[in-house]
């Protein structure tokens, strides 16, 4: 292009240049993007360019006067997107996706976390917009608004397209099938950049809406065959052993297995659970399988035995689907179902989703007396929560199926001095340091709750299922975690850290015969397990997990990012590890399970995206296809 063409674009280039460099600085300072070579670093560096040149270039089609204003507005919007990503990443250790953007109620409810998450330096993200405004006002020679010729536009957009394909081409040499394998957001950001990634995300989102529209009952045939082939017969001795008993689930916020039977400064972190395990079935190789939906994803897994989604929270994106969740199934067996959780009913879209899951009642924040004294962090303290729940619990018809969701052990792990029963850890991670006293506090709350159940005469007639919802300490704290565990946190160890406790207490059974069960399992297995204990046949139920007590059960769990764990191997980040040594081994060892892991996630996603359970009458998919709902 001629010099004059370029001089007409000075303002655009200035805006692009500042956004570009700023984005790269954000990549390097706010995100934890692993770079393994100079080529990867180069791709990361150039990846914001094509998108920025494209959107700023749209100004060529604006009226001369509006052109620079448009550039300023786009710059502001892009900065806002970047800002949202930075804050989101700080909290979730993940990149923003369109579905979570619509979770404004969640964002508003982040409450006390917001002040922790917002840093004064974040304001720097808007400096270039201010610079643009100043230039716009004060330096007219940079804001030339002469119109462009057709040829100039054509050359410009061709150059932008060339830039994009150069970027994508380079990325594809690094990562073949980049755009078809979508579960790793970091890989996408690293290769096509944060802006292109958002466009890609929007396209995917529209695709999933279309998927529902296009799905029909025939989509179910392959899935049906797969599920039928993978069905595991329940254990004869345990089937129906808890028939007619109440069930209480307790979802322990952010509780990972590494705290169990562990001490800090010589004090047990979970003294109650450690004792309780001695009269229960305890699963020490039980994994959470959640994605971005965190607690809500764990609920989804536990109630449906389906996988949550790789993007967004399924509670939000598919809250109105048809499901055959446990509450719905046990209703037919005379159970009353409820959830106890002292948070706003709209958080994670629970009010809508609980209806879809078939819950009779949700005791949300409105059912509790929450005030300054009895709150910390995210709300009502666990001890007060359980204490106030007792009367509500007693008011229910029996048998009941009730879920309690704790809250105190939530990031940023705040706790009043008088509630601290163990010391903080000492490391460079304030998050990890504070984690131990809050875990210890929840343990105390559980102890008091069990005592109260005994006093009220509910304990002897109730199965207690206590499990951790998801990790509490993200990979951002690997160094500090390594110093606590006394070993380096490799990708292999990171997977092992995704274990959460699972404790099942059946009165009259586990107190006499407690067991430590080390088979690999995950949250997806709870639905068929609990139904079997209650004597409810799951042969015709759509579920991806399998009864934890079944003798035919495989040692196997797939995590939502596609990592998987077997009896002998761990597969994560395209690498196969030997479980006993934690060392990298040849890929071929993991190969037999790779297809199964992918298949599971794909089929489950297909059910969710296509809303396929709407075609299923809940009784007979194992028989014939003709039994599918019309
Ligand atoms: C919110 C609580 C915590 O109600 O369940 O949610 P999380 O952030 O852990 O998903
Ligand atoms: Mn949680």
Structure, explained:
The protein is of the alpha/beta class. The chain folds into two domains: 5-211, no CATH class; 233-542, Alkaline Phosphatase, subunit A, CATH 3.40.720.10. 45% of the residues lie in helices and 10% in strands. The strands form five sheets. An eight-stranded mixed beta sheet has the order 7-6-10-1-11-12-4-13. Strands 15-16-17-18-19 form a five-stranded antiparallel beta sheet. Strand 2 (263-264) and strand 3 (267-268) form a beta hairpin. Helix 2 (10-30) packs antiparallel against helix 4 (49-57), helix 2 packs parallel to helix 5 (64-92) and helix 5 (64-92) packs antiparallel against helix 9 (127-138). The longest helix has 30 residues, at 185-214. The termini are far apart. Bound molecules: (2R)-2,3-dihydroxypropyl phosphate (GP9) and manganese (II) ion (MN). Manganese (II) ion binds at residues 253-254, 294-295, 469-470.
Give a brief outline of the structure.
With 630 residues, the protein is α/β, with parallel strands linked by helices. 45% of the residues lie in helices and 10% in strands.
